[in-house]
């Protein structure tokens, strides 16, 4: 299931569980990784009992497609898929319904993080990390992503709205704490890139999805090894996307920058 040793020619990894294994090899990064397990009914029940809320995700896939939030409630269980919420009195009834949605694919269960919200909508951050022309890892941009009002995922492709990180965090944490948090997030991003670079030396870019909980602790939600630059086209600071494109050209990648689904903050 997991890659072992160095993969000198691999520049893309699809399995979220494999990428989680890479992160967990680093003690510092492991502190920011929510508990993640291969999906099974037994594992789902155990994690719901421990955490109360979890996310069930396809092991391979992108754009937030197929992600389900599952909650243990006072009256039973519920899960949200897309814009619809389903409620159940028993775990068995919920599991059988959920199984119909996810059958035929490998899934994982991840501890749910109660992330910060803007006007009731959850948000997280995408940090772009790239090899610069000197072949050193560099954080080239951070975009805040606010979920569509009816959805649980923040992806722009799912109708999310793109903000600068400061626009989302300053009202909550203040300018000084926000600046500290952004530096911390960049350190996590660079450490992630270094860790992946040791395992996969051919990699030139990563997109790190980070969320911040109510205690202002950052969490690594996912590492994307073929990141979509679309969120950065919606930022007012156009120098960010220009740098991302310039660095990508230097290592041979070309992007499609037609991004119609993500919304730009007013």
UniProtKB/TrEMBL annotation:
Listed GO MF terms: ATP binding; metal ion binding
Keyword check for Nucleotide-binding: yes
Domain of life of the organism encoding this protein: Bacteria
Official protein name in the record: YheC/YheD family protein
Biological source species: Paenibacillus montanisoli
ATP-grasp domain: residues covered: 19-249
Entry annotated with the keyword Transferase: no
Lineage: Bacteria, Bacillati, Bacillota, Bacilli, Bacillales
Pfam family, any one: ATPgrasp_YheCD
Keywords: ATP-binding, Nucleotide-binding
């Amino acid at each position: 299931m997991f890659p072992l040793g160095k993969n000198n020619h691999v520049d893309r990894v699809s399995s979220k569980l494999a990428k989680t294994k890479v992160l967990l090899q680093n003690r510092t990064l492991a502190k920011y990784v929510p508990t993640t397990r291969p999906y099974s009914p037994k594992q789902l029940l155990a994690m719901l009992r421990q955490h109360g809320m979890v996310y069930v995700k396809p092991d391979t896939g992108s754009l937030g497609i197929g992600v389900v939030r599952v909650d243990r409630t006072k009256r039973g269980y519920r899960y949200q898929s897309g814009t619809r919420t389903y409620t159940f009195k028993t775990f068995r009834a919920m599991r059988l319904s959920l199984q119909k949605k996810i059958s035929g694919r490998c899934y994982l269960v991840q501890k749910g993080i109660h992330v910060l919200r803007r006007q009731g909508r959850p948000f997280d951050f995408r940090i772009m990390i790239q090899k610069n022309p000197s072949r050193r890892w560099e954080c080239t941009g951070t975009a805040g992503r606010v979920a569509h009002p009816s959805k649980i995922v923040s992806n722009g492709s799912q109708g999310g709205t793109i903000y600068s990180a400061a626009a989302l965090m300053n009202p909550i944490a203040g300018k000084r704490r926000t600046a500290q948090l952004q530096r911390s997030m960049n350190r996590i991003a660079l450490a992630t890139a270094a860790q992946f670079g040791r395992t996969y030396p051919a990699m030139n870019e990563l997109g790190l999805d980070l969320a911040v909980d109510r205690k202002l602790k950052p969490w690594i939600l996912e590492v994307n090894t073929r990141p979509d630059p679309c969120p950065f086209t919606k930022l007012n600071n156009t120098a960010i996307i220009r740098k991302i494109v310039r660095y990508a050209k230097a290592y041979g990648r070309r992007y499609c920058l037609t991004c119609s689904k993500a919304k730009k903050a007013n």
